[in-house]
Amino acid sequence: MSEAAAEESATRVVVRDLGVTEYAEIFAAMKAFTEQRGPDTLDEIWFTQHKPVFTQGQAGKEEHLLFPGDIPVVQSDRGGQVTYHGPGQITGYLLFNLRRMGLSVRGLVSGIEESIIALLARHDIDAAARPDAPGVYIGNNKIASLGLRVRRGCSYHGLALNVDMDLEPFGRINPCGLTGIEVVDMSSLTANADLPAVQRHLLDELVRHYHLVV
């Protein structure tokens, strides 16, 4: 396929860097975007770092929220259990028209995992996905989590990649409902954990995997 033909078949996407945000505000904005979008609305990727917050997925069980302390807990409509978001973590929201892209939910999940794994490989970090629990792992340590919702064929929510953050709050929960695992970030594994650079590389991998044009 020629370069021109490849670009013609690619999906155009708008990328937004929202900076540091309150989770509840972005959650409401994602839902509104998905509700209001039409068949010709361009897909979007939103990057943000959230102020400290625990988010509880639709299947979330109270038993996995051990002692949240002074960090707020927000009920979300994504899949999965409880997780933590905070500064130093890249949260990426993929607002995709899956029907238009010809993409299944399983394909969306696998693509996110493979994009993060490829990004980490750029930093000489050997990571893998697990068939029994979505996310990306370094051995038995979790470095990235996933949580998604699909409405009318369109996705929202997405991924959270731990780059250089305070990991203490993860000790207040069973992350994603899992026990017996540790949560790690990139800064504990490499000296190359500059968040803006990691975010650019992550976007590169998502663009490549999903055949996007920015």
What is the CATH architecture term? 2-Layer Sandwich
Give the amount of beta strand, in percent. Answer: 25-35%
CATH class: Alpha Beta
CATH topology: BirA Bifunctional Protein, domain 2
Can you tell me about this structure?
28% of the residues lie in helices and 33% in strands. It has a single domain (10-213), classed as Bira Bifunctional Protein, Domain 2 (BirA Bifunctional Protein, domain 2, 2-Layer Sandwich). The model is unreliable at 1-6 (pLDDT under 50). The protein is globular and about 45 Å long. The chain has five helices and twelve strands. It has helices at 3-9, 23-36, 98-101, 105-122, 195-210; strands at residues 11-21, 43-50, 53-56, 73-75, 82-85, 89-95, 128-130, 133-138, 141-151, 154-162, 182-183, 212-213. A hairpin with a 2-residue loop joins strand 9 and strand 10. It has 214 residues and is of the alpha/beta class.
